[in-house]
Amino acid sequence: MEAPPPLFSPYLARWQLAPDGAPIETPTSNLLPVMNAGRPAMLKLLKPSSDEGPGIAALGWFAGAGAVDIIATEGDAVLMERAIGTRSLTRMATSGDDEGAIRIIAGVAAQLHAPRSTPPPNLPNLTRRFRALFEAGESHPVLPRCGAAARGLINNPRETVVLHGDLHHENVLDSPRGWLAIDPKGVSGERAYDVANLFLNPVDVDRLVLDPARALRLATIVSDALGIERARVLGFAFAHAGLSAAWCMEDGINPRLAIEAAEMLEPLAGQANRRKRLQSSPGNC
User: Fold this and answer.
1) Tens of pLDDT along 223-246?
2) Which of the listed residues 62, 81, 100 is the one where a domain comes to its end?
3) Which residues contact 226 (CB under 8 A, 6 or more apart)?
4) Which UniProt keywords apply (predicted)?
5) 198, 109 in Cβ contact below 8 A?
6) Is 214 inside a domain boundary?
7) Band of the pLDDT at 106, cuts 50, 70, 90?
8) Is residue 218 within 8 Å of residue 103, measured between CB atoms?
9) Which of 46, 64, 171, 217 is the most buried (most CB within 10 A)?
């Protein structure tokens, strides 16, 4: 194995780490798999332009409950637990057990959302999270309707917690401690938003993402598992599909799948909202 780049050297020496794989570079960080006292870990060095600060703060607040644990931090360097299990939720979902994968992710979300004894960190809110959608205008006819749905939900929030912000099949990994979330964005907002991204995943698997019957099953599973309103789950799923499309447009990526998902989810969210209003009307029980 080649020697790692010099930028890792101070932390390898300071924390007595042994390289255990090839370095990885992302737009926001440099990472190196390492061994820490015989246990797998990941050393992450944030780049000056990184926007991962809120995610690291969220990881620290999760304190290993449902997410990989932070072992040490110093400045822009983070040493964290490395999940090394062999099971894959994407593989599970695409090989016939989509509902099983959804239940696992919902269980992880429940752990992440559980109350802690310490005050939560100061994190970006959902209004900031949805900024790209709010600024997208009429880039596509469905986007203003997604934006209106997002505003309606955000302006009338339910229980606000520290959210992962990017829960999906590739961000929940197998480990000796069970299934653990990685790479949170770190957002403060309503719990129902944290499962919105599941409706767009697994990535590029159109037969699942664009299946309305699957979307309804997903909404039922997560609303039951987390004790949240099904109508709000579907509302945030619709809004987030628009946000995903807006992000794609910003990055020059074809937004087709996100747009088609939004168009599929819109009537489901509307129907769930109408049913909710009917059930809450005087004279109904």
Assistant:
1) 999 999 999 999 999 999 999 999
2) 81
3) 106, 109, 110, 113, 191, 192, 195
4) Kinase, Transferase
5) no
6) yes
7) very high
8) no
9) 171
166 in active site: yes
Instruction: Give the pLDDT of residue 211.
Output: 98
- The answer to whether the beta carbons of residues 112 and 67 sit under 8 Å apart is yes
Mean pLDDT (the chain) is 95
E strands of 70-139, at which residues?
70-74, 77-81
pLDDT of residue 125: 98
Spatial distance between the Cα atoms of 31 and 114, rounded to a whole number of angstroms: 29
Q: 91: how many CB neighbours lie within 10 A of its CB? A: 13
- What gap in Å lies between CA 117 and CA 136, rounded to an integer? 39
pTM of the model: 0.93
Residue 208, pLDDT > 80, answer: yes
Residue of 62, 64, 56 lying closest to 31 (CA atoms): 56
pLDDT of amino acid 3: 87
Residues 111 and 219 in one domain: yes
Nearest alpha-carbon partner for 184 in 84, 282, 25, 51: 51
CA distance 266 to 234: 8
Dump strand ranges (E) for 211-255: none
- Can you tell me whether residue 45 is helix, strand or coil? strand
CA distance 152 to 131: 14
114 and 176 in a single domain? The answer is yes
Residue 205 falls inside a structural domain: yes
| CA atoms of 25 and 11, how far apart (whole Å) | 17
- Active-site residue (options: 97, 166, 174, 211): 166
